[in-house]
Design goal:
The complex is a heterodimer of chains A (about 140) and B (about 375). Chain A has about 140 residues and is mostly beta strands. Chain A has two helices and eight strands; from the N terminus they run ααββββββββ. Chain A has one domain. Chain B has 13 helices and eleven strands. The longest helix of chain B has 16 residues. Classes of the chains: A mainly beta (about 140), B alpha/beta (about 375). At the A-B interface, strand 4, strand 5, strand 6 and strand 8 of A face helix 4, helix 5 and strand 5 of B. The structure holds zinc ion. The site of zinc ion has 8 residues of chain A, from loops.
């Protein structure tokens, strides 16, 4: 995966609200928000809870367990900086806590399927460690 | 058929022929040319237009867009606004125009969209959640979003690549009857579609719209005034709109979109069942969008669009319920935000009986849809010809 680290591609836009998310990944931890009032887990980061609008969001460590809701093998990337590693896979990742995020999927040359089990896999993309996922070694349902 | 008494009608249309490239033209120039065509088509003078609806202009006019366009056109409208619903902007303008007329703020509204394709496309700085949380992972652009929607649809319902490809082939076939279409003279079979390069699985190149320069304009006025115009009036019988999300990861449902309630509301206002509609003018940025819309319109059960299309006898003007006779955007080309308005313009032409070579016999009603972002901004319209 050294290829990914060498890419010249647009990275995250860092700001105080999302710092926990990106810094957490760099530290090897998946962090999302949780509402103390209504209990909902929230992705992407918000200033207040988008479910109940309480000013009660805290940062928690997510389990990293997830399933693949959908995926695409990208042959012609939308940004030319990704061309050196095409084809590659991106997917919609449904976290065990509930929210869905989009991420880069490491397949280890296996073919992904909708519903596959994923594991959190922090990965260097373009010199920054991002919260990616990998197809789990377990037998997928 | 029970129609609500229509207050507003479409009395004029204008359309610029799609072009792959332009040189040194400004968006304003294109907007003014296509607007002049629509105003003349309605049999009006520009001074009779007192309402203006425009779309966003990325890079050219970041703010005060309606005032900038009005000034350029030499107009001083009593209602001016920008509709920013992506591909749903055009249809979204039509009911807003009718609502402004019903509110007594204006009588005749110009709805206009257009874009150039000069070599360097200006881009404004982009700071939204899709840029912040999708792009760093290698997902940028609409192709990825609709590929994810299509993969989910295939996985859930077991539809085959040929089913989706048949929609692209049908659109190309319809384009052979529209000399203005970018793919006029370039038909494509289902095999051709499936043999075209894979862009983002499961989407092939021919299942994705071709970006073009172009422009579309529509005049909406009172039913009374439209009746005095040179063409058969096309009444707005019903409308529905819904916006659910922006980034594809936040979609509440990957296989059905906000067009479902929008279409239901529009048909309800018109007092019609979808099976009664003469012409289906459905937004088609990708094959999956057209497939999902056929299902969300209630024409068939979810996952059954392929069989429905075969039973319908394809998409042409002789089909049971013809779809996108101008070629759709898949066959006509997508003039950026004006692409959604092509579906309104073709519906008006069909209801007027003004589509030589592709006219639907006895076309009196149309269901028009617009769609923006990631199957997340939806507008549906029911249009009906004056009797
Ligand atoms: Zn809450």
């Amino acid at each position: 995966m050294n290829d990914l680290a060498q890419l010249k591609v647009p990275g995250p836009i860092y700001e105080p609200l999302n710092a926990h998310f990106w810094q957490g990944a760099a530290d090897g931890v998946l962090k999302i928000q949780n509402c103390v009032d209504c209990g909902a887990y929230v992705f992407y980061p918000r200033p207040i809870c988008p479910h109940c609008w309480a000013d009660a969001l805290t940062w928690v460590r997510a389990s990293g367990a997830a399933t693949l809701k959908s995926f695409s093998v990208i042959h012609k990337p939308g940004h030319p900086g990704w061309a050196p590693v095409a084809p590659y896979v991106v997917g919609l990742v449904e976290l065990a806590e509930g929210p869905t995020m989009l991420s880069h999927i490491l397949t280890n040359a296996r073919t992904p399927t909708v519903g596959a089990t994923l594991a959190f896999a922090p990965t260097d993309i373009g010199g920054r460690v991002l919260p990616c996922f990998t197809l789990s070694e377990e037998i997928n349902q | 058929m029970r129609h609500l008494s229509p207050r507003a009608a479409i009395s004029g249309i204008g359309e610029l022929t799609p072009q792959r490239r332009t040189e040194d033209v400004a968006t304003m120039d294109m907007l003014m040319r296509v607007s002049a065509e629509a105003i003349a088509d309605a049999g009006l003078a520009p001074s009779e237009v007192d309402g203006l609806l425009v779309g966003p202009q990325v890079g050219e006019t970041p703010q005060h867009v309606p005032a900038a366009v009005a000034e350029y056109f030499g107009m001083q409208p009593t209602m001016a606004n920008m509709v920013d619903l992506g591909g749903a902007s055009g249809p979204g303008m039509i009911w807003r125009a009718a609502a402004a007329i019903a509110a007594g703020q204006c009588e005749t509204v110009l709805c206009v969209l257009g874009n150039h394709r000069n070599p360097v496309a200006p881009r404004s700085p982009n700071r939204n959640p899709a840029r912040e949380f999708d792009t760093p992972f290698g997902a940028s652009g609409a192709n990825t979003s609709y590929a994810l929607l299509m993969q989910a649809h295939m996985a859930r319902y077991g539809c085959k690549p040929e089913d989706y490809a048949a929609l692209a082939a049908g659109s190309r076939a319809n384009a052979q009857f529209n000399p203005a279409a970018i793919f006029h003279g370039a038909p494509a079979s289902v095999d051709d579609v499936l043999a075209s390069p894979m862009i983002a699985s499961p989407l092939h190149l021919f299942e994705i719209v071709m970006p073009v320069a172009g422009g579309e304009a529509v005049i909406v006025t009172t039913a009374e005034r439209a009746a005095k115009g040179p063409h058969r009036s096309v009444h707005l019988l019903g409308a529905g709109e819904k916006v659910t999300h922006r980034a594809v990861s936040q979609a509440p449902d990957l296989t059905s979109g906000p067009l479902k309630p929008s279409i239901a509301r529009a048909l309800g206002q018109a007092g019609m069942d979808v099976a009664q509609v003469d012409f289906l003018s459905f937004y088609d940025c990708y094959t999956i969008m057209l497939a999902a819309t056929i299902e969300d319109a209630g024409l068939c059960a979810p996952g059954k669009f392929g069989q429905w299309l075969r039973d319908n006898g394809g998409m042409g003007s002789d089909a049971r319920q013809p779809i996108n006779t101008h070629g759709g955007q898949l066959g006509f080309g997508q003039p950026d935000l004006a692409g959604g308005m092509t579906h309104v313009v073709e519906a008006v032409r069909q209801i007027r009986g003004d589509t030589p070579g592709r006219q639907i016999a006895g076309c009196n009603t149309a269901l028009v849809t617009g769609n923006g972002a990631t199957m997340s901004e939806a507008v549906a319209l029911v249009l009906g010809g004056a009797s």
